[in-house]
Amino acid sequence: EVQLVESGGGLVQPGGSLRLSCAASGFTFSSYWMRWVRQAPGKGLEWVASIKQDGGEKYYVDSVKGRFTVSRDNAENSLYLQMNSLRAEDTAVYYCARVTQGGSDIWGQGTMVTVS
Amino acid sequence: DIVMTQSPLSLPVTPGEPASISCRSSQSLLHSKGYNSLDWYLQKPGQSPQLLIYLGSNRASGVPDRFSGSGSGSDFTLKITRVEAEDVGVYYCMQSLRAPITFGQGTRLEIK
């Protein structure tokens, strides 16, 4: 079964750090761009970061540049989001998603990050 | 940044009736290769988003044919020919032409 499973969310104090993981299975992980998308409580979707198949290109939304780092380990079929200097406004459910030319067709169930 | 504007933001619909959601972008989403970098997603209550339409008008795998996407450039529409109870949720358009990727505000479809 093709799936993505996020983990690593939790409660953290402002200024703290957290590392999210996304485990991929059922497809050739190394062949796809991947992205992180978040959703603050009661709000809409916000793109956070994207990473190329080999990790050689990375893009971030301005609000997280310099604080968040997206990475991947193709040997482990895993995507990561290292989040430092966390702020209250980073509180959200974080989703990882597979990227194809035909949209983000696979999404994880999300992991909740609370900064308080 | 490309701004995505959806309307309406709330859409009450009677089952069996059609529904339409508009999505407009502040810049053309037409890629140099001839396709529109515009997707539609549905987030059902308590669930992750799911892909409905990609590249403006292509139904994703498993999506019922009552859903269709149309438009080009900066003006797009998602249509549902006959709304069913399972269609409730928030619909988002998203552009992926250039970073930062941006979403519309979302349109909440509810059953009357």
Written overview of the protein:
The complex is a heterodimer of chains A (116) and B (112). In chain A, 0% of the residues lie in helices and 55% in strands. Chain A has strands at residues 3-7, 10-12, 18-25, 33-39, 45-51, 58-60, 68-73, 78-83, 92-100, 103-107, 111-115. In chain A, a hairpin with a 6-residue loop joins strand 5 and strand 6. The N and C termini of chain A lie far apart (36 Å). With 112 residues, chain B is mainly β. Chain B has no helices and eleven strands. Chain B has strands at 4-7, 10-13, 19-25, 38-43, 50-54, 58-59, 67-72, 75-80, 89-95, 102-103, 107-111. In chain B, strand 5 (50-54) and strand 6 (58-59) form a beta hairpin. Chain B is globular, with a radius of gyration of 13 Å. The model of chain B has no long low-confidence stretch (mean pLDDT 97). At the A-B interface, strand 5, strand 9 and strand 10 of A face strand 4, strand 5, strand 9 and strand 10 of B.
Radius of gyration of chain A: 13 Å
What sort of overall outline of chain B do the alpha carbons produce when their principal axes are compared?
A: globular
Distance between the termini of chain A: 36 Å
SSE string of chain B, helices as H and strands as E: EEEEEEEEEEE
Q: Rough shape of chain A?
A: globular
**Percent in strands of chain A:** over 45%
- Report the largest inter-chain contact: A-B, 22 and 25 residues
Continuous helix count of chain A: 0
For the terminal residues of chain B, how far apart are their CA atoms? Answer: 36 Å
Looking at this protein, list some descriptive labels.
heterodimer; A: 116 residues; mainly beta; seven-stranded mixed β-sheet; four-stranded antiparallel β-sheet; 0% helix; B: 112 residues; 48% strand; globular
